[in-house]
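Notebook, p. 212. Picked up where the previous page left off. The plan for this session was modest: take the two constructs that came back from the sequencing core last week, fold each one, and keep the raw output in the notebook itself so nobody has to go hunting through shared drives later. Recording the first one now, exactly as returned: residue sequence, then the structure token string.
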Amino acid sequence: MLGLATCGLVTVLTSSSYRFEPTDYGTRVTVRDEGFIGRSEAAFGNAEHWERVLGWLSEYLAGAGAGAEKAR
């Protein structure tokens, strides 16, 4: 997936990839975001964004699992 990141007045093209791997306890999600060489401020901001988004995903999936248990 391609995206844009802004650092100051400069906008750069970035790319994201996702990998899902089964584990003994569920699924490992690996997110790789590239295109930030020399743009550490944008990279750190983007990392904070992904932490927030993956937190929301985790909460959503935890609630979906609880909902599935209640439906049984």
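Okay, moving on. Second construct, recorded in the same format:
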Amino acid sequence: MNRDSGYNLNELLSALEAEIKEWVEIRLKLLQLNVFEKTAIVGSFLIFGVLVINLLLFTVLFAFVALGFLIGNRIHSMASGFAIISFFYLLILAVMLFFRKTIFTGLQNLLLKELTPESEDELSAK
């Protein structure tokens, strides 16, 4: 080995160690930013979903209250009108319970789609 080349093994190893430390720090920062990004996406998705569900809930609730009054006026019994609407709600509940596995699977797939990379390009970038 030529010792006159200006570099010794200790200097090369120190430089390599510094480069590896810098690379690891950059990768950790990238991982942290990716986690923050996914958390923000899922958080905004959930908040938007809760807002939409609340608006739909109140819309459906008031529509069914109005429908209860309408049916009650038609059959000349408010209690019967609201009872019919209550049975309709029970029917919806029964259908949801019957298809609960399908609903849960769909929601899980939707959430997992938001958490996983969209394309091969995003995978190779990491």
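Notes on construct two before I forget. The chain has a mean pLDDT of 87.
Flagging for discussion at group meeting.
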